[in-house]
Amino acid sequence: MNNIAIFASGSGSNFDAIVQKVEKGELDVNIALLVCDRIGAPVIEKAQKYEIDTVVYRPKSFSDKSEYERAVLDDCRKRDVEFIVLAGYMRLIGPTLLQPFEQRIINIHPSLLPAFPGKDAIGQALEKRVKVTGVTIHFVDGGMDTGPIIAQEAIEVSDADTAIDIKRKIQAVEHRLYPKVIQSLFIKEESQ
Fold it and tell me: Is residue 41 within 8 Å of residue 10, measured between CB atoms?
């Protein structure tokens, strides 16, 4: 069974969805670690509930990004992490983590990339009055939401939809699609 680390910064809804699929036997991975960069983030309590090892680092307490990522890398290595899953992790990954985990870090983003990369993709979609947005799962590279796309799924946006409505639609897709894609990546890897 593959060991994964999940990186999250906020509420942890995708973290929760992944853990539930693991517990139901629908996702064949071991969640070895939660990495969080925000003290007090709700995802931390969720990880404690599931008894998942958790490290919480305040990046500003490190001299630079590289030192922060070396600490995270050490924690991943101690737990034999093979794959990193970003689930609402609000930091760009630097070379200290990218190099040892090349093509082994994935991210989920609430838009149909390349449209609306970065923060507040839902707000960007509303501002542009798009009729379709969605979810993208992609490999992480050195850019912001620029890595190779693994999967996408669209949702329709009505004129009456608020940001909350769109978020609900997107999360429904995310919570179903992300675990499915994670599982497919490990099946692919085992067959190689």
Answer: yes
